[in-house]
Design goal:
Elements (H helix, E strand, L loop, with lengths): L4 E6 L1 H5 L8 H17 L2 E6 L7 H8 L3 H25 L4 E5 L8 E2 L2 H9 L3 E5 L9 H11 L4 E6 L4 E2 L11 E2 L1 E2 L1 H7 L6 H10 L2 E6 L4 H6 L6 E3 L1
Parallel strand pairs: 1-2, 1-6, 2-5, 3-4, 3-5, 6-10, 9-11
Antiparallel strand pairs: 7-8, 10-11
Helix pairs in contact: 3-4, 6-8, 7-8
Length: about 230
C-alpha cells in the first residue's frame, strides 16, 4: 500500500443519490463496501462528511434570513445527523465504526478527542467525524484538514463529482485541462476551488497529501495502492 492512514472527505450531496435530500441507503452501502476494501488491505480509515444534503450553512443564511453564525451551527448539526445515520447503516452492512462529534455526545456518538479518535483507529474501526471543528465560520474541508493533522493521517481522499483537479470548471469549459499532479503552491496561486484555502494551507504545512477523485467502484482501493487516479496535490 502507498497509504496506511487515510481520511476520506465525502460531500453530503454524494450521500443523497437520486433523492432530493437526506441519505440514500444504497449509496451508504456502496461507500461502506468501498471503505471495507481499504480496511481489508490494512488501511486505517477516518471519514469526514459534509452536511449539504440537509443544510449548507455557509450558503443558506442570506436567502433564509438567518444570522450567518446561526447558519453555521445548523450546518454542523446537519453533519451530526449524517454521521448518526451513517454509523447505523455502516454497522448494518458489517462495517464496524465509532462516531465522534466536536459538539459533544449525541446519542451513541461520543465527544471528539484526539486520544479517542486514535483509539478508534487502532481498534480497526472506521472513525466517523462530525460537527466540523465545533465552531462557526469553518468549512468541513478545513475541519477535515485539521482532523488529519491531529490524527497523524497521511493523506486526504477528497471525493468530488469530477475525476480530479482541473484548471477551470470542466462542466463549463469542455477544454479544461486536468492535472495528474499539482503542488500546493500552484493550487493556491491559481486559486483552484477543490477545497478551501485554509484546508490546503493546513495540509501543505503538515505534509499531508490530497488525492482528488470521483467516488466510483474500486477507486478508493486504487488510491490506497497508489495507482494513478484523479489528481494528487502535494
Amino acid at each position: 500500500m502507498k497509504y496506511n492512514k487515510i481520511l476520506i472527505k465525502l460531500s453530503g450531496e454524494a450521500l443523497q443519490g437520486s433523492r432530493q435530500s437526506g441519505i440514500d441507503p444504497e449509496v451508504a452501502q456502496f461507500v461502506a463496501s468501498e471503505i471495507k476494501e481499504a480496511q481489508d488491505l490494512g488501511a486505517k480509515v477516518a471519514v469526514v462528511v459534509g452536511g449539504g444534503n440537509i443544510y449548507r450553512g455557509a450558503e443558506s443564511f442570506e436567502k433564509d434570513g438567518i444570522r450567518e453564525e446561526t447558519s453555521h451551527w445548523m450546518g454542523m448539526l446537519a453533519i451530526c445527523i449524517n454521521c448518526l445515520a451513517l454509523s447505523d447503516l455502516f454497522k448494518s452492512f458489517g462495517v464496524e465504526n465509532h462516531a465522534l462529534s466536536a459538539l459533544g455526545q449525541v446519542g451513541d456518538m461520543g465527544s471528539y478527542s484526539v486520544s479517542e479518535g486514535k483509539k478508534t483507529l487502532d481498534q480497526g474501526k472506521v472513525l466517523l467525524l462530525s460537527g466540523g471543528e465545533g465552531k462557526p465560520f469553518r468549512s468541513s474541508d478545513s475541519g477535515a484538514a485539521t482532523r488529519a493533522k491531529e490524527l497523524d493521517m497521511e493523506v486526504i481522499f477528497k471525493m468530488t463529482k469530477v475525476d480530479g483537479v482541473y484548471d477551470s470548471d470542466p462542466f463549463v469549459n469542455p477544454n479544461a485541462k486536468k492535472f495528474s499532479a499539482i503542488s500546493f503552491d500552484e493550487v493556491l496561486e491559481r486559486d483552484l476551488k477543490v477545497m478551501d484555502r485554509g484546508a490546503f494551507e493546513t495540509c501543505k504545512e503538515n505534509g499531508i497529501s490530497i488525492v482528488v477523485f470521483r467516488l466510483e467502484k474500486g477507486n478508493i482501493r486504487k488510491a490506497v495502492m497508489g495507482q494513478e487516479i484523479g489528481t494528487v496535490v502535494k
